[in-house]
Specification:
Elements lengths: L1 H18 L8 H36 L10 E3 L5 H7 L14 E3 L4 H13 L3 E5 L16 E5 L6 E4 L4 E5 L4 H11 L3 E2 L10 H6 L7 H4 L6 E7 L5 E2 L1 H4 L1 H6 L10 E8 L1 E2 L4 E9 L4 H11 L7 E11 L5 E11 L3 H11 L10 E4 L24 E9 L5 H11 L6 E6 L3 H4 L15 E9 L4 H17 L31 H12 L2 H12 L16
Helix pairs in contact: 1-2, 2-4, 12-14, 15-16
Length: about 550
């Protein structure tokens, strides 16, 4: 179909050229012929597309295992369940009306995934893979050209082995489901990953997966031992059969560029039976500037059992006026009795006291005061419209820079800034051990996040304006050449690929080196070997380099 379409297009262009008619003049015979050919091209493309849709189900049936009930896992646009399934895990309401795949597949076994890859490729349809739907730019469930979604909502099994302290977790599980299942088997095992329990494992792990135990144990990707995936040929691979290059690429390089990651074998890590959560809020008039300045110089050097991040939000001062507030939010892998003397030495000026802290189990830290069973609820986090951006800081921002930051932060529709400390284990892992390069020398990661409930273009404009203004202000104080970003806080404003998939390595380097630094070239070379025709692609997928 693509070849014939291209030939018709070439004929039309040649007729334009050979007609020799100057601009503004006409040639009736040539115009009639051109009109006929253009109409033929449009009708052909339309008919071919419709034909490919009607061919999809038979292809899926023929490529799946016998009696695999394909008809129960495929949803076309005519299906009554289609609207609810497509919207079920769209977390960013900015894109709630942007997704209209030709089909949604909710696979229940490997053969369903293999068949979907083979048939999508055969019929010229694009492919998107969705695990939790938290993709900041919606790239896991929307596309400009006709496409199919593989929704891994039924690929969510978690199997914990206490014999070797490992687990297999399927990509459609949320990290909340993973945490719950680990804790259900052991009160002294955990896993280093994010703090939002409804995030899907597939995207989180393949993008790196930072969290509050990263200073102790590294990223999620640093603790992956094996993986099962389906490549662009529809072949099922494990670590041994995919090879170490591809296994390296999917642990921080974004799995959606290389195939469909079905499951991950992970190394579980020790956690104490009791951990401590502390929160110390400080407004500007309570000394937030000096404390934030001090935090930058010491948080990355804290004991590895301490992860103290800074959450910057809006608040009211003692006069009831709008101000900025810094919340020093800490996870300590130990008891209150242990952390108080530690912080008296490491960060005395914060004035941490026992009243600021609460003891609980590791898994309870993610339930936010609710019964831990809530972690099994994939939809308990309230959805909204949002935009995120990210930065990395290598040198402390001076107090004068912070003073200016507060002014910009308080302008317009303020969102939230989260400063996530690095150091510890993160500094011990080399930049090229995985595709995630943000290691030694990084003091902390910044997330700029704006979330709102109002519908409409004007509401979006105001919130995006705040995000862009604070991001612009921070330019002199963050990493440079390139200005770095965290893949899991995807930001399409860094740059995007061409819609037709013909994006050069040089063009994609604009955004690729922000996420991956020098690892971007190796990722592109691996992509060139395992998916040379660039079947798995989106606006920020890795381009093949031969």
């Amino acid at each position: 179909m693509q070849l014939r379409k291209a030939r018709l297009g070439v004929i039309v262009q040649l007729l334009y050229i050979s007609s020799g008619s100057p601009k503004g003049t006409s040639c009736p015979i040539m115009e009639s012929l051109l009109f006929f050919l253009q109409l033929s091209l449009l009708l052909y493309v339309s008919c071919a597309s419709q034909s490919s849709y009607s061919d999809f189900l038979p292809c899926l049936v023929s490529q799946s295992q016998p009696s695999s009930q394909v008809d129960e896992v495929i949803y076309s646009q005519n299906s009554s369940l289609y609207p609810s399934i497509i919207r079920s895990s769209i977390q960013n309401l900015r894109f709630i009306n942007s997704s209209s795949p030709q089909f949604i597949i909710t696979p229940r076994n490997e053969s369903h995934v293999q068949a979907t890859v083979i048939c999508s490729k055969k019929l010229g349809l694009g492919l998107r893979v969705r695990s939790g739907g938290h993709d900041y730019e919606g790239l896991s469930y929307k596309a400009a050209n006709p496409f199919v979604i593989i929704d891994l909502v039924d690929f969510r099994k978690v199997s914990v082995s206490l014999d070797d302290n490992t687990a297999w977790v399927e990509s459609g599980a949320t990290i909340g489901e993973l945490y719950y299942q680990i804790a259900n088997r052991s009160s002294t095992l955990g896993f280093p990953a994010g703090t939002c329990p409804t995030i899907g494992v597939g995207g989180h792990f393949s993008g790196g997966g930072q969290g509050q135990m990263s200073r102790k144990y590294g990223l999620s990707a640093d603790n992956v031992l094996d993986a099962i995936m389906v490549d662009a040929n529809g072949t099922v691979l494990d670590r041994e059969s995919m090879g170490e290059d591809l296994f390296w690429a999917i642990r921080g390089g974004g799995g959606a560029s290389f195939g469909v990651i079905l499951s991950w074998k992970i190394k579980l890590v020790p956690v104490p039976p009791v951990v401590t959560i502390c929160n110390v809020p400080k407004t500007l008039e309570q000394g937030a500037t000096k404390l934030s300045h001090s935090w930058q110089q010491i948080a990355y050097k804290f004991d590895k059992d301490i992860a103290m991040r800074v959450i910057i939000t809006l608040a009211n001062d003692t006069k009831g006026e709008k101000t900025a507030q810094t919340i020093f939010n800490c996870l300590y892998l130990g008891t209150i009795q242990q952390i108080i003397p530690l912080m008296s030495v490491s960060f005395l000026e914060l004035g941490l006291a026992a009243k600021d802290c609460h003891e609980m189990s590791w898994v309870q830290t993610f339930a936010e005061g609710e019964p831990v069973k809530v972690l099994m609820n994939r939809s308990h986090v309230i959805k909204g419209y949002f935009k995120g951006k990210s930065d990395y800081v290598n040198e402390p921002i001076p107090e004068s820079g912070l003073e200016g930051m507060w002014k910009v932060f308080l302008e317009g529709e303020a969102g939230v800034m989260i400063w996530e400390p690095y150091g510890g284990k993160m500094s011990e892992i080399t930049e090229d051990e995985t595709p995630f390069p943000h290691r030694a020398g990084v003091l902390y990661n910044i997330q700029y996040f704006s979330k709102w409930e109002e519908e409409g273009i004007e509401a979006e404009r105001k919130h995006l304006e705040w995000t862009n203004n604070i991001y612009k202000y921070m330019t002199p104080f963050v990493s440079k050449s390139p200005r770095r970003a965290y893949l899991n806080y995807k930001d399409i404003e860094l740059g995007r690929n061409n819609e037709n998939g013909n994006t050069s390595f040089l063009q994609a380097s604009v955004w690729g080196e922000s996420y991956f630094k020098n690892n971007f070239k190796r990722l592109s070379q691996i992509k060139g070997r395992v998916d040379p025709n660039n079947f798995f692609r989106d606006e920020q997928s890795i381009p093949p380099l031969w």
